[in-house]
Specification:
heterodimer, A: alpha+beta, five-stranded mixed sheet, B: alpha+beta, 33% helix, iron-sulfur (chain B), 2 iron, 2 sulfur cluster binding (chain B), metal ion binding (chain B)
Chain lengths: 784, 159
């Protein structure tokens, strides 16, 4: 057993513990938002704009209201008492675009809600929504961020007079000298695809309002219950302690369920206005056009390189296509700002200048999605790296290794002021190369090429900023102070309740936090229950996003468990009449160290602490409960993903043969859950490389509005994925834990894309617009 | 309810219980199962037959309940995850899914279980390739499928 004051690694932390929550989902008894019924509830359907950009001339709700079963139809003007949603980031020079929860005067993307219908069931609500007559006066649409920057472009927010909400340059080192000294300069302009979280469960909410004094209860599919409560309090003008946000089972979020959605606010406002519970569950089309999009950026990169392949300097311009509003909670800057900061990645680059530009366009607003910012920046950089290596005649693995931050140089401060706590960059690259037997694979590639078959290898080493707290946010370029809490309580029977502010929507928190608490207290994992997702029972927490739960949750739970263990030992010491320092807790028994027979059960100590006055010290807090906070320093996980693909130049068919991932997230709490995160993120990355793109036509009509045209990878596209674990515990975080959620989606799109282009090397391919679609491959292979 | 709607009586056997409801002809089988019978294990992920989360067995065959009307299932026998997970083959799948970490958020899971349950009806010793092909009609956004495929392959050979 490894132990320090705050973190104990016993029989559970580090073990492949099966998930304790699985049976609920496997029996169909888990309750998601669509499964929840509240007595007397009515159903909401939204009337959504068919135009990308238009003036709303009039909204006639009379026919809809006349339909039997319709309780109410409200427009933006009807909700004048509801505040507008605005992003919370306080960044100098960033213009704000407050968003009405139902459009007033103007719509700025197809799918923006203009009115809401409340009816006895969803079928009638949709019928009535079709009867709402909205007169629009179409305006010119901005469908491309670069076009939107032009002086004569239609302007989305007349009061701002421009579509450019933010523009700022930063210089690090002496980039001009680096470029002057370079043997070669490479450049490329990359347009990364717009794709989205697309959780299997769409968004949804049920609101219940009680008067005297007012109480609002909103049940919603959210990753961030406490943040939603704050936002609702603001826009509804209600004190936050009168609002309860609770989340039933949440069917995936991947970032889309972080921001407060306009629809959640409308549902809450309708419950208050109508005095009856109202429910809204989004359909897939709504999710695809009105749920947030992600990742689209236009990134221009320049690299100054020596003839031997040493990178001397880098310049970048990053243009974020933010869609119709700088979305609340996460601003228009999340993509380009984070990409700009993280562009050096795992490489030792001392001279680097960047310019970040945030532009609104008449497309669906962009917000968080797994690997936010990092995915697009990483894809652009790694694609250019392969072009450089090919041009210089260097092996792509060797080119990367040559420029990597060396082992033994951690902590490493990047030129952009990110402080990499620890890592295994070159080790992870070597490990992944060994996993695929790289030399043999290159040999096979040559042999097959001679036979007219084209396999390719894509090498994608990455790191990711994890444990999004105050320090991490600042390093990413977002001043967003935060802290999180956990409450650990030993109940009178000796059972343990762990309450956290982290939501679980597939990450397995009920298991990982129970592992940490069980080791921290010396009890069985079966004796621990984890409570989350309800502002009335969970201590304040920022929620689950940005790979923060393992490190911050693990930290808060271990801190609280350690404090409670002290209380248990104090009580047991009085019961046994020995000094608490001489006691230990093993397998639910408190005893003198080395003499398990001379002890009492954990349950007996708990019972005594609650009900036996003799164990109470004078003036001492005997309640076996502690709430502890934690706001960790930034930590950085890392890894390398390698994809092996075969491309048929005739049919353009891509077959992913295999993918390997060498990952390092510091101390592993549960390797099985870590592998699940890696597999899942890589699968989304495969989608991002090959399939997923939210295309628009020139008028701003979204062209991917069903799962028939927004393609999610299936069992046929996702190959076997092998995962190796390296462990570089963070010297900064409690227990050495780092996060793990994003790396696969940061790095897999580049791994797969680079592999495809490597396969097509004989055609000297140059691909800078993602994803890699069949027509783009055909275009490459048509070249002489 | 309003009186102007056309309503029809539907009788069917769901999870071994005969049920009778008077419903609109346009009511989907998924909404019938979920809202009329409160059997919410069946999930709606896309409502146009692509994602497979709403899969149930009708006369022993997997169907997309989002694209099937309740009236089409009238007189028939429907089985949902709530029943299947309690039968021996379902219990075997359940254990195998847990062992192989074949679920994360759990939303697509009932659809995968129902599809797999029927898949194992008259098949044993599935290969990985067969399992991948047969499961390709169901979408999971969390797991990357490896655990699901491993779970179904193992459960297929457990007899």
């Amino acid at each position: 057993m490894v132990e320090n004051k705050t973190f104990t690694r016993g029989k559970f932390v580090g073990a492949r513990v099966p998930r304790v929550e699985d049976d609920r989902f496997l029996t169909g008894s888990a309750r998601f938002i669509a499964d929840v019924k509240v007595a007397g509830m009515k159903h909401v359907a939204f009337v959504r704009s068919p135009y990308a950009h238009a003036r709303v001339v009039s909204v006639d709700v009379s026919q809809a209201l006349a339909l039997a079963g319709v309780a109410a139809v409200v427009t933006g003007e009807d909700l004048a008492d509801v505040g507008r949603l605005v992003d919370a980031m306080q960044i100098e020079g960033l213009s704000k675009t407050p968003q009405p929860v139902l459009a007033v005067d103007r719509v700025r993307f197809v799918g923006e809600a203009v009115a809401a219908v409340v009816a006895e069931d969803r079928y009638v609500a949709e019928d009535a929504a079709d009867l709402v007559v909205v007169e629009y006066e179409p305006l010119g649409a901005v469908t491309d961020a670069v076009a939107g920057m032009a002086a004569d472009a239609p302007v989305l927010f007349e009061e701002l007079g421009t579509n450019v909400l933010y523009r700022r340059s930063r210089a690090h080192g002496d980039t001009d000298s680096a470029f002057a000294a370079a043997d070669r300069v490479f450049e490329g302009r990359f347009h990364t695809n717009r794709f989205m979280a697309a959780p299997m469960e769409t968004r949804g909410a049920i609101a219940t309002f009680e008067t005297g004094p007012d109480r609002l209860h909103i049940q919603t599919s959210s990753q961030t219950p406490h943040l939603l409560r704050m936002a609702l309090a603001g826009v509804l003008g209600m004190p936050e302690q009168r609002i309860r946000v609770s989340t039933p089972a949440v069917g995936g979020g991947f970032g889309q369920k972080i921001a407060t959605s306009p629809e959640e606010v409308v549902v809450a406002a309708l419950a208050r206005r109508l005095g009856c519970p109202v429910k809204w569950v989004e359909d897939r089309r709504e999710n695809l056009i009105a749920g947030s999009h992600a990742k689209e950026q236009i990134i221009s990169l320049e690299l100054a390189v020596t003839g031997e392949g040493r990178i001397l300097g880098m310049r970048a311009q990053l243009i974020g296509d933010g869609g119709g509003y700088s979305f609340n909670t996460s601003s228009i800057l999340v993509e380009p700002q984070v990409a700009a900061q993280s562009m050096p990645g795992v490489y030792d680059i001392a001279n680097y200048d960047y310019e970040v530009i945030g532009v609104v366009t008449n497309k669906t607003p962009v917000a968080s999605f797994r690997g936010i910012g990092w995915t697009a920046g990483h894809s652009a950089r790694e694609l250019l790296f392969d072009e450089v290596a090919r041009d210089l005649g260097l092996d792509p693995a060797e080119f990367r290794r040559l420029n990597m931050i060396a082992p033994g140089s951690f902590p490493h401060r990047t030129c952009t002021d990110m402080l990499y706590d620890s890592g295994s960059y070159t080790e992870s690259l070597a490990d992944a190369l060994e996993m695929v037997d790289y030399r043999a694979l290159r040999e096979r590639q040559r042999e097959l090429r001679a036979q007219g078959r084209y396999i390719g290898i894509g090498i994608s080493p990455y790191n990711e900023l994890t444990g999004f707290g105050t320090d991490s946010a600042s390093q990413a370029g977002f001043p967003f102070p935060s802290h999180d809490n956990a409450m650990v309580t030993v109940e009178p029977t000796g059972k343990v309740t762990v309450a956290v502010g982290f939501h679980s929507h597939g990450q397995g928190h009920e298991t990982t936090f129970a592992q940490v608490a069980a080791d921290g207290l010396g009890v069985a994992i079966e004796d621990v229950a984890v409570v989350f997702g309800d502002t009335s029972t969970s201590p304040f927490g920022m929620g689950t996003y940005a790979s923060r739960s393992a490190i911050i949750g693990g930290g808060t739970v271990s801190l609280a468990a350690a404090r409670v263990r002290e209380k248990v030992l104090a009580a047991a010491g009085r019961l046994l009449e020995v000094s608490p320092e001489d006691l230990e807790i093993v397998d639910g028994r408190v005893s003198v160290a080395g003499d398990p027979d001379a002890g009492v059960s954990f349950a007996e100590v708990a019972g005594a602490a609650y009900f036996d006055p003799r164990v109470r010290g004078e003036g001492e807090d005997v309640y076996l409960s502690a709430t502890m906070f934690y706001d960790p320093p930034a930590t950085y996980s890392n890894g390398t993903i390698i994809a092996v693909v075969e491309v048929d130049p005739e049919t353009t068919e891509i077959t992913i043969e295999r993918i390997v991932a060498s990952e390092d997230c510091g101390t592993v709490i549960n390797p099985m859950i870590v592998e699940g995160q890696v597999h899942g993120a890589i699968a989304q990355g495969i989608g991002g490389a090959l399939l997923e793109h939210l295309a628009y036509d020139e008028q701003g009509q979204p062209l991917a509005t069903t799962y028939m045209d927004y393609l999610i990878p299936t069992t046929m596209e996702v190959p076997r994925i092998d995962v190796n674990h390296l462990e570089s515990p963070s010297p900064f975080s409690i227990g050495g834990i780092k996060g793990i959620g994003e790396g696969g989606l940061i790095s897999a799109p580049a791994a797969v894309t680079c592999a495809v282009l490597d396969a097509l090397a004989p055609w000297e391919p140059r691909l800078r617009t993602l994803p890699v679609t069949p027509d783009r491959i055909a275009e490459i292979c048509r070249q002489e | 309810m309003t009186s102007s709607k056309e309503l029809v009586e539907v009788v069917m056997t769901v999870n071994q219980t005969e049920v009778t409801r008077t419903v609109e002809p346009r009511l989907t089988l998924a909404d019938f199962i979920r809202d009329e019978l409160d059997l919410t294990g069946t999930k709606l992920g896309c409502e146009h037959g692509v994602c497979g989360a709403c899969t149930v067995l009708l006369e022993g065959e997997p169907v997309r309940s989002c694209c099937t009307l309740a009236v089409q299932a009238a007189g028939g026998t429907v089985q949902t995850v709530e029943e299947l997970c309690r039968l021996p083959r379902g219990a075997r799948l359940r254990e195998s899914f847990k062992k192989h970490h074949a679920l994360q958020c759990g939303f697509c899971t009932p659809g995968f279980l129902v599809t797999s349950y029927e898949l194992l009806e008259d098949r044993d010793e599935l290969t990985v390739e067969e399992a991948r092909r047969e499961l390709s009609g169901n979408i999971c956004r969390c797991t990357g499928y490896q655990g699901i495929v491993a779970a179904v392959v193992e459960a297929s050979g457990a007899d």
